[in-house]
Amino acid sequence: MGKRNNSQRKENVESPRKEISENEACNMTEKEFRVMVMEFIHRMDEKINNLCKNQEEMKSDIATIKNTMESFNSRLQEAEDRISELEDQVQKQAQAEQQLEKKIKKQEESLRELRDNMKRSNMRIIGLPEGQEEQQGLENLFEEIMTENFPDMGKIKVTQIGLGTNMNLNRGYGGAGSVGSIPAVQVKQSILNPLKLEVNPNIQSMCNQEKEQIKSFNKFASFIDKVRSLEQQNKILMTKWNLLQQQKMTQSNMDNMSQSYISNLPWQLRLMLKAEFGNEQRLVEYLKNKYEDEINKSTEIDNEVVLIKTDVAYCEQDRAGSHLEGLTIEINFYRQLYEEEICELQVQISDMSVVLSMDNNHTLDLDGIIAEVKAQSRSPTAASQG
């Protein structure tokens, strides 16, 4: 395109030269020639201005191309950063998988500990056959234990002084060791008189034995309460164990699902990375093609700039050549004029010499005549130059 435009411009420049040189150069006056030269110069100035504008537009296009190239480079940098971020995410996911495996191992260890605790809590009391308390009941078991440990407990009776009441110990030894309720007593003045009482040492020993038996019985009652609490805890632990077994069954499904999900994660991640890599490759190829197109455009623009410069130089050369031709034509015209004037002056001088030769008898002022002739010869040359 640039070479074609250059050839068209050269033809447009050369066509007026041919027309001027062939058709109008001979018949053109000086004013018409000067007007034509001025119009030609004006047209050349307009062309030069247009070329300058085109150069500025090309410079702006080159600047935009550079900006687009910088944006492409920035996008490539962003793509590289994104790839590095994806690699970091892959590493983080691998670390998360390792942490999940550690958590699963910890949960398995905690389940083992719970199983061991459940096995440890299944305690057996020595001396009591297992399962017999459910058949006989706690009251019968208590009576058997009491008869084995305290055979004389039901036969002992305590006689209080001044009350005359006998109380059976089997009735009030359940929890706090109380003897019985004391009825209201009316005190008489005769009773307040000092009496001589003899204390039986057997009664004192019996009281001490009774206190020790009450203490041991309280200990045994607390032991039975502990056994009941242990039975309740055992039932609670059994219910917990059943719940944990049910949870374990559901957790096994969750483990399979989590393992399948974890096993599918690398495959999904590979697919995502392949898709991202394909997109980035397509983007890079697109950017490379665009970069090559822009480089080709820039080379074309540089070639056009070079052609424009050559066109400008050619126009300047053509303008100088046309100006030189005009000057040579003008010089030739003035030279012909000068030669014709010299011929006329020579003819006039020859005529005057003839007249002088005919008038030899008269006295003439030759110096004045020569000065007048010179003045007359100078006046037409000055008029022609003006």
From TrEMBL:
Coiled-coil segments: 62-124
Keyword Coiled coil: yes
Record domain IF rod: where: 210-386
Keywords recorded for this protein, A-Z: Coiled coil, Intermediate filament, Keratin
Region (Disordered): 1-23
InterPro entries hit by this protein: IF_rod_dom (IPR039008), Keratin_2_head (IPR032444)
UniProt biased composition (Basic and acidic residues): 8-21
Keyword presence, rRNA-binding: no
One of the record's GO cellular component terms: intermediate filament
Protein's name in the database: IF rod domain-containing protein
